[in-house]
Amino acid sequence: MGLSETLANYFDVHKHGSTVRTEILAGITTFLTMSYIVVVNPSLLTDQPYIEGVDGIAIAGYTPGEVQSMLAVVTILAAAIATTVMAFYANRPFAQAPGLGLNAFFAFTVVGALGVPWQTALAAVFIEGLIFIALTAVGAREAIIKVFPEPVKMAVGTGIGLFLAIIGLQAMGIVVNDNSTLVTMGNLASNPIAIVSIVGLFFTFALYAANVPGSIIIGIVGTSLLGWGLTASGVVSAEAGLVANSSAATYDITPLAGAFISGFGNVEAFSFALIVITFFFVDFFDTAGTLVGVGQAGGFLNDDGDLPDIDKPLMADAVGTTAGAMLGTSTVTTYIESATGVEEGGRTGLTALVVALLFLGSLAIVPLATAIPQYASHIALVVIGVVMLRNVVDIEWDDLTFTIPAGMTILVMPFTYSIAYGIAAGIVSYPLVKVAAGEYDDVSAGQWALAVAFVLYFVVRTSGMLQAQV
Question: Based on the structure, what is the number of domains in the chain?
Fold first, then answer.
């Protein structure tokens, strides 16, 4: 029996109406569409120029470039582990990696705004992963889903999209600070970074609209090469910052791996619990929503619109998150880009296995990750942010008891630079508007408890009582 036949039999490829060749091509397609995370995740977790005094994940004795290359290795390993579990345990063509939005929450809200040490943030991700594993194992998914208000669940994706977009636009110099209006348009015509970023952004949008496989990574690399070419030819001075200050790559991840253990020291229970809850909430519903969306594209859903045996891919996500935290990265989640592989005909875990193997193969390009300037890598944030806005159509805008919580969730996220605050605003407003509309029965005891908890959190957080744990 040859390798092809062995794979076909193990993953029931023919039973699912597919072929080994189709599964391999689907895996390649999925990998190309999500491979940008190898560059973007390290950039987000390492560099935070918009929050004064915060450097993200910084390790004594290592340059930011070296930390970035460590994070690239960790990103690859976490993606490979989670996607391999998806392949063999769930037998689904879904790929996983550290999630956009979740890494932004990790870096900008937890480490940045709250001042929590990055080791403690990793500890929160680790605990979130363990809770996810336990709840998935006992089949508590339905109970969890019912606790969170539906309009908030439907609005989270759009809010995160806006949040990612503004982070990306700031890195490109397109959106800048303003004392009068808070934000405004930068001096685009006189800023080489802004000019190159705009060219790269619209080039990437064009590729994405044309359904070119790997459009985002092509756009990132193309923008980086444009910046390098303009600098090398003397058209733009080196001081303009179009070229990254790359450093020698390192594959030694020991400073990151296991760092979460030290994060349990001097933990402030209340704030730590809220961080864990927020990580869990965003991860759980982002993954569940993605699985249903991709499952719909592949015809996997049953007559009730549910994905059969969804607990298995959810478990793969939970295991990936836990392993990722142990290695040193933020929450792992299922990628909507998996739909591209499904559309190519991928129907089994063989597609996921191909993605996992390609991630491992990308370890060879880790040195290139530190050569990508931040403005180029953040193109991915704007592109994905814009695409995530389409989730807004799932909200029942003609019902004010949905409009208000959803609107608060979406608006508060980018304006406060916090996914957690947006979710909290939606959860607090939901029972209030439901009671005002006379729809008391629509609010559960769990939803009231969450609303009260977040009101207390806002009081503690904004009154200065919640001190950063250093």
Answer: 1
Note down the domain range covering 343. Answer: 3-462
Establish if 469 belongs to a structural domain. Answer: no
Report whether 191 contacts 321 (CB < 8 A): no
pTM of the model: 0.81
Closest-CA residue to 326 (of 250, 264, 251, 248): 264
Q: Which residues pair with 332 in a beta bridge?
A: 98
The separation between the first and the last C-alpha atoms of the chain, rounded to the nearest angstrom, is: 59
- Inside any domain, residue 467: no
CB neighbourhood size of 34 (10 A): 28
How do residues 102-125 score in pLDDT, each as one tens digit?
A: 898 898 888 887 788 999 999 999
Rounded to whole angstroms, how far apart are CA atoms 392 and 410? 9
Nearest to 32 by CA among 342, 367, 340: 340
Answer positive or negative: Cα dihedral of 144, 149, 150, 156: negative
Residue with tokens 């956009």: 100
State the helix-helix crossing angle for 150-171 and 419-436, rounded to 10 degrees. 150
